[in-house]
Amino acid sequence: MKIILVNERGATRSFNFGGLSKALLGLCLLGLPVGAFLLGTNLSVVETDLFDARTAKAWERALRKQQEEIGAADRAAREQLVALTVKLAELQARLTRLDALGERLTAAANLDEGEFQFGTPPALGGPEDSQIAGASELPYQSPGFLDVIDDLSQQIDDRQMQLEMLESLMANLKLEDEQFIAGRPITRGWMSSRYGYRTDPFTGRRTWHKGVDFAGKMGSDVVSVAAGVVTWADERHGYGQLVEINHGNGYSTRYGHNSALKVGLGDVVRKGQVIAQMGSSGRSTGPHVHFEIFKNNRAVDPASYIRRTGR
Looking at the DSSP assignment, which residues form a beta bridge with residue 277? Predict the structure, then answer.
């Protein structure tokens, strides 16, 4: 084997190699690519100034921290979702109870059908505002979870407003019913004298009787025929122990000849409340209650009010 070398001046020089020299030169030439390959495989683990082991560990710690933060945020979001789901269920249950209560109160109050409709959404409306630029071009978007909760809250507020109005209406109806004069002023007994002319039990002459008498057992209960305020609770000439009650709207009632009084001046009494005990005080021939009704300061026949059964 002969090798010719040429230098920079153009001079040449040749070398002759024998069999052993050829083998050694082949091994050297073969080792160059193998060494380069082995050197290339170790380049990835060679440390540099830009990336070393400490940098790799710092990146690993930062990555783990970010993963932990993502996990915590995911758990918090799931917990909030569960809480919102529970809140939504509570609002729906509350709305259902309000609807049921409203329908029951509406039926109990005998209101016109359709005046309070708790089973349907509240009526809404209004003209479209065409002055808003692009309002008609806005795409439809389905309501989100929070929007559903807000909608339920608004429905509950609407139901509560209706219930407050219904409560006020029922309170007024109840007050009117309490003030409505009806029934007898006793719990036990019988009517012993009617309204109008009669024979006076003391003089025997024909006289005007401006009330009705209910006879009964001494000490039995005398009750108010309507709610009102006591304007007299004391002795009065001819009446004996008298209770007088003002019921408003120009109406008042009197209960005379009692043996004992259970109310005092200025007391607020309910319909059916015991106000006295039957007796024979004053101008009386026996235990009874003398009952009078006044309308605009004029005595009227109690018979039509006694026959009433209430509103």
Answer: 221, 260
